[in-house]
Amino acid sequence: MKIPTATYRIQFRNGMTFDRAAGLVPYLERLGISHLYASPVFTATSGSTHGYDVTDANEIEPSIGGRAGFDRMVQALKAAGLGLILDIVPNHMAASLENPWWRDVVEKGENSRHARHFDINWSTRLTLPFLGDTFESVLENHEIAVKPDPNTGRPAFAYHDTFYPLAPETWVGREAEVLKLTDKAEIAELHRRQPYRLMSWRDAPRDLSYRRFFEITGLAGVRVEDKAVFDDTHRLILELVHSGAVDGLRVDHVDGLADPKAYLELLRQEAGPDCYITVEKILGKGEHIPADWPISGTTGYEFIASLSDVLVDDEKIAALRKAYDDVVGKPVDMKAELRAAKLLMADRNFAGEFTTLSMLAMAIAGTEGAALDEKVVRSALRELLVAFPVYRTYGTEEGLPPADCDMLRKVAERVRTGANAPAPEALDFLTRILAGEVANSASGEAAAFRTRFQQLTGPLMAKSVEDTLFFRQNMDLALNEVGAEPMPRAFSPDRFHAEMKTRLERQPDALSATSTHDTKRGEDARARLYTLTEAPELWAACVTRWRRMNQSNVTVLDDGPAPKPAVAWMLYQALAGVWPVTLHPENEAGLKALEARFLDFVEKALREAKLRTNWGDSNDTYEKAVLDYARHLLSPANQAFLRDFYHALQPFIRAGLVNSLTQTVIKLTAPGVPDIYQGSEALNFSLVDPDNRREPDFAALERLLAGDGKPAATTEEGWLSGRLKQHVIARLLRFRQRKPTLFRRGDYLPLAATGKRAENVLAFARAESDDALIVIAPRLVFGALHGSLAHPYTEYWAQTEIALPERLANRRYRDILSGETICLADRISLASADGCSSVILLSA
């Protein structure tokens, strides 16, 4: 297996085609990339912006070049010696009539060849929750009628521009008669005879006959646990792997599958031992990828979380938390907030999935003759789901693995002794089902319960934490990231070192990400917002002053001010994170461009919080008030605020750029395969999607990299343009290519600093055989920066040293960035450190 030395993620669609990507190959080669990492390229719904709504897994999307364009891109990659990794989506497909398999199921029901391809409960009619109201209401309002499908000519239910096919047995032989139906009762009777039931989208959370992806009814779960379904959905994928066109696969949402391990084992068997495979998997605190999965690791969200241990000031974060509590008006109880978010998801957003589990449990109780009240069982089930600390367990028909059994016992005990403890007999009953400790007569039902439970805990966690709690609680937005821990904790470089040692041991070939298409903000915005923990009093004072300056634009509504102080805190912080480095308050065009992006974020943030508005029932009055406030912040007429904001932001911008380079250097040298998200090799101050999926200016990036024949200069322009970051990446990635074993298998050695600035340095080494690499990166330097990042700051690092163990001492090294050669005894003095950039020494 060829392990990548560095990947580069490209988002196809939205203008990015295979031929355009092929044109970027020389740039990627100069940057030091070994593998292009492509977003899904298979045919998806018309106008799809992301490709995860696949309609044909065995065809390459025509709009981005089709198979011919794909082959040209592959040829360009291979000619340059670059590999290709594909993002594949085994968990779901589009529940769209554009999907021929889904359309066939809609038309023929259980008689369709593809009826078992989708995870559908066929004990009832297939639900199609795509109407604006109930079927009865849209029929009454003359919004639905029987008409010929313009594409097939066959009778169909016409609802606006959508034509739902009728089952053949309900019209064949009487086509003309059916097409003339106008009587509502007769149309309703025709609807009752279909294998599907048209219904309101609002009813989907409570009443759905198929498994969906999270809450998205337009994405239907696929049963890849069935070998025939696996074969049908992976035919082209495996052909591309076997032909050598594709070198690796990234498996989307592996936790959604019925049996992830069995799927990965089959994928490995079919793809072969040389295919590099990673999985999108969120790891909880202390959780690890199962050791028996035949993969190289995850896509790296846990790596993002680990960087906070380096870049958060643990000694001052309590002051930031207190300032936020003061704005909220009371101390924030994150445990209570998490519980509230999970209860909301269980009771409302996933009510149907919850009810399915409850019904399965009661059926098992009936099989076993257990006298349990349904309300008691539902209460225990709710508490068990809410208490689950990780995305899922990995039980099969035989029960749970030992590690998962142990975790289940611990979770059950916490529930049993908690403040909201349910009836113990109901809790014991549910844990027995999950552990597989049931009568043989109930084993099949127990296996079904276990699978459904495991397929629900992940979406419940994701939507509770990432898409609710992280939009409600905004003490520091940098910490509200995919894979982060929602509970307050201590931040420590020692913990980071420990996690890197574990990473080297357990998944040295996993991707190490800092930005992805799903992160809540770009890596440089996050790096900047980490600095709030270094100057909490200053930040709090700024927010107080800005709120006062813009108070006249707060709207008082019946349910309170819009925005409330805590929401205003979030708005100023989000604006601070996204503010372009060189944007001046007088630049009206720049402000207008920023406003469009910022307002889209604000609307999404308000709706995801689900407090005073949400996606299903938007509160237009409230949203308009907050959006108007946000619009006012960026109005060119609001110069007093804009000038104040701009000048106050400068020290955070400078410290954020230092953080950015530090996290980049760490990613490029710590265990794991560095993943560069498109455009992030320079500066990425994006907001949550879709903002983070905008195409970068590749022409500008290519110009920025041009002329990299000498060490990158730490000039002010180099910092502010992103050129320094990009050139450091290019230089280090080339060294990774020359020393792959050092970076892949080299020992990870934490190094300790002593002296005046010991806490402002993170240092470690990688060592393998005769090769050694020493990395020294600045951290928590907010208070040290004075106006320019190009300042040498040598006085700041005086009296600070790093001791070298015998394995690294008394050797000659070359500074990868400066080219300087130095001889080291048993320590490194930082007195001559060059400003705020990192020092990276490779044994000569």
From TrEMBL:
UniProt gene name: treY
Alphabetized Pfam families for the sequence: Alpha-amylase (PF00128)
One GO molecular-function entry: (1,4)-alpha-D-glucan 1-alpha-D-glucosylmutase activity
Domain Glycosyl hydrolase family 13 catalytic stretches: 12-420
Record protein name field: Malto-oligosyltrehalose synthase
Superkingdom: Bacteria
An individual GO BP term: trehalose biosynthetic process
